[in-house]
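Work Package 4 report. The design task specified in the project plan requires that, given a folded chain encoded as structure tokens, an amino acid be chosen for each position. We show below one input record used in the internal validation round.
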């Protein structure tokens, strides 16, 4: 199979601030593989999680290195390609893009969307949360209003872990809740709390009807999860602490769920593996995203029937998304009926 790479930049309608910084623009990579007149598409987007950070330049360089590795393979040889890319130490975002593209190719070959090829029921897909980044109370309220005016919001995910401390977190959260008192809320600290702050905040949030708290402690402090779980009245999910299925056994006794992201996991193949591993340990699963366009989020939506929670909203905050794909209906990100991923190119990628 032949591989082609195009670079495109996407801009956020509203910059997003989390505990690690602010993002207003990202440069992502569109990967296509072709064989027998069929083209499959995938996306690699940069992200930063400590030593696992993957920049656009790192992704581009890795794609150049793996191009000759892929040529002898068919898109039908996903297991062999996965092992070859792992052996070549390809970054997970690169593996994700190639794996996505091979799945897209297969769906187009047989003329079926992936959700249908896998026998999944898209009617059971839950609403996606949309994200309120760290902000002042007034700024957070304004951002909530923007979302409510822009789309059919059913769930807010509020980013906490402010560098100004948990007092600032509490004031901001109350402001957002005041703006939308009837919605469901999730909280994501992105590792921005210490153990004492996490214990205090989970107790405080429990009285406010929160469904769960995501990544309360920094990656690298997993040894403190046991104490937090024992003292938290809320379910604990991990994101930055869980990249692939091999991370799950060590975490299973100390958390209630995991956040699966295609860029972390290395693609749909590993994401499916993570779902089954998590379920075997009695954990819940959610699907999340980085600054992904409709291409990667539509790919994740193909697996959405298997998720307990969804946070696939990054493409909704883009002003120049070059792709169209999953539909938004009653707050749910729904894969369409087109074959493969069901993604179409809607503008020139730059």
């Amino acid at each position: 199979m032949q591989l082609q790479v195009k670079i495109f930049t996407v801009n956020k309608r509203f910059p997003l601030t989390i505990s690690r910084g602010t993002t207003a623009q990202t440069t992502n990579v569109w990967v296509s593989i072709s064989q027998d007149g069929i083209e499959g598409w995938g996306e690699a987007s940069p992200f930063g999680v400590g030593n696992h950070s993957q920049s656009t330049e790192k992704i581009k360089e890795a794609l150049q290195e793996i191009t000759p590795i892929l040529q002898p393979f068919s898109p039908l040889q996903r297991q062999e390609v996965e092992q070859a890319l792992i052996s070549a130490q390809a970054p997970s975002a690169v593996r994700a893009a190639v794996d996505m593209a091979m799945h897209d190719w297969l769906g187009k070959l047989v003329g079926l969307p992936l959700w249908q090829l896998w026998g999944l029921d898209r009617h059971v897909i839950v609403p996606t949360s949309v994200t309120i980044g760290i902000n002042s109370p007034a700024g957070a309220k304004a951002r909530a209003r923007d979302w409510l005016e822009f789309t059919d919001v059913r769930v807010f995910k509020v980013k906490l872990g402010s560098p100004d401390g948990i007092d600032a977190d509490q004031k901001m959260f109350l402001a957002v809740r005041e703006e939308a008192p009837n919605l469901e809320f999730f909280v994501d600290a992105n590792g921005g709390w210490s153990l004492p702050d996490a214990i205090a905040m989970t107790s405080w949030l429990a009285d406010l009807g929160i469904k769960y708290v995501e990544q309360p402690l920094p990656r690298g402090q997993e040894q403190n999860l046991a104490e937090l779980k024992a003292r938290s009245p809320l379910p604990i999910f991990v994101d930055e602490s869980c990249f692939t299925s091999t991370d799950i056994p060590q975490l299973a006794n100390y958390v209630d769920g995991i956040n699966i992201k295609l860029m972390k996991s290395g693609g749909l193949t590993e994401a499916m593996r993570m779902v089954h591993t998590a379920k075997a340990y009695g954990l819940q699963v959610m699907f999340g995203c980085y600054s992904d366009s409709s291409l990667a989020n539509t790919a994740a939506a193909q697996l959405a029937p298997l998720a307990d929670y969804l946070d696939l909203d990054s493409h909704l905050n883009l002003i120049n998304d070059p792709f169209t794909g999953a539909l938004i209906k009653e707050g749910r990100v729904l894969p369409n009926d087109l074959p493969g991923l069901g993604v179409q190119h809607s503008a020139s990628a730059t």
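The first helix runs from residue 56 to 70. Validation will be extended to a larger panel in the next phase.
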